Amino acid sequence: MQAAQKPANSDSRASERSVDDLVARARRLEAADRGEAGRLYMQALQRDPANLTAHNALERLEDPKRYGAWMRINGTIHPEDDIFRFIAREPAYTLNPVRDYLSDGWRTLSETMQVLELLDRPLMKMSSVLEFASGYGRFTRHLARALPGRVTCSDVLPGSTEFVREQFGVEAFESCFDPATLEFPERYDLVFVLSLFTHLPVPVWDAWLRALGGAVKPGGVLLFSVHSEALAREELGVKLNDEGYCYLPHSESPSLDPEHYGTTLTTRRLVEDRVRAALGAEPALYQPGAFWVGQDAVAVIPDDPAQETC
Ligand SMILES: C[S@@+](CC[C@H](N)C(=O)[O-])C[C@H]1O[C@@H](n2cnc3c(N)ncnc32)[C@H](O)[C@@H]1O
To answer: Which of 32, 57, 139, 180 could form a disulfide with 105 if both were Cys (CB 3.0 to 4.6 A apart)?
Structure first.
């Protein structure tokens, strides 16, 4: 006898329904039986590892099996976080996007510490840090744990500053697209900018470098990342123009206008020239491949204009 034909995708629809059912049942149980609610959310997350409703509920309920307990951080992930979405759809990750996203921030902490060690400016000695272009806090949660009360964040994404303030207890202010109008609440020992210049059109770099350099305390450090030249030429096969860059009008973030925020590939020479032109200083450190796969670290100790003599 022939088995009854199942409609296409009926299995996946059934399993999707069951994840939704698990989440709905867990939500109803939260007040009456927190432990059972946690167990159901965990089942939902095991079936659908990118399910942020289940993951965030485990964090909110302080379930003992939540990722935040393992990493000793707040593991809540904003549902609009484009970096999480990128990780969740990227074939190199995908098996466990929540763990990959959280450990990716941990990796950034380790990479940042290594670069600052090379400069003899240990992160743990910084009395104030501005994490500029902090997004929805992929790295912030780890930084805030290392330096409680010493971190300020800034970004343009809607709701991102409120989110990092509420979730990670940092100070935060909204950024804008015109660096000339941006007011920084104070100056910082370290201004850290991971993967913003990798997206900004080169013609606006000088203005951004001047603004961010001006937010550094006398003797402090501006640390930012750029795409490695080798990534552009060898891995992506991108042709750089005569000035030494290529700007592609797309990025991981569909919510940002590709005219202001795309993908920027540059030569090392262009980066060093822009630092000299904008800040009148040589990079104190240029460390190839310091961040992620294919981003170089550039550190500058800007001159203090107040110290200039005639
Ligand atoms: C590739 S993401 C990196 C986010 C974060 N630094 C991290 O490592 O997870 C770049 C970030 O730059 C932010 N950004 C873009 N334009 C900005 C601006 N004018 N001011 C501040 N942040 C900006 C984006 O919203 C996005 O969050």
So the answer is: 139
Q: Alpha-carbon Rg of the chain, whole angstroms?
A: 22
Q: How far apart are CA 107 and CA 123, in angstroms?
A: 14
Residues 190-210: what's their mean pLDDT?
A: 98
Give start-end residues of each CATH 3.40.50.150 domain in the chain.
Answer: 100-307
Rounded to whole angstroms, the maximal C-alpha distance in the chain is 98
Find out whether the beta carbon of 135 lies less than 6 Å from any atom of ligand 1: yes
∠ CA(218), CA(289), CA(81), 5° rounding?
A: 80
Q: What was the pLDDT predicted at 300? A: 98
- Say which CATH class 100-307 falls into: alpha beta
pTM: 0.93
Q: Closest ligand 1 atom, CA of 251?
A: 1
Given a cut of 80, is residue 304 above it in pLDDT? Answer: no
Q: How far is the CA of 12 from the centre of ligand 1 (A)?
A: 35
Q: Is 196 in the pocket of ligand 1 (CB under 6 A)?
A: yes
Q: How close are the terminal C-alpha atoms of the chain, in Å?
A: 98
List of residues 6+ apart from 99 with CB closer than 8 A: 67
Residue from 86, 94, 26, 87 nearest 60 by CA:
26
Write the Ramachandran bin of 85: left for phi over 0, alpha for psi from -120 to 50, otherwise beta.
alpha
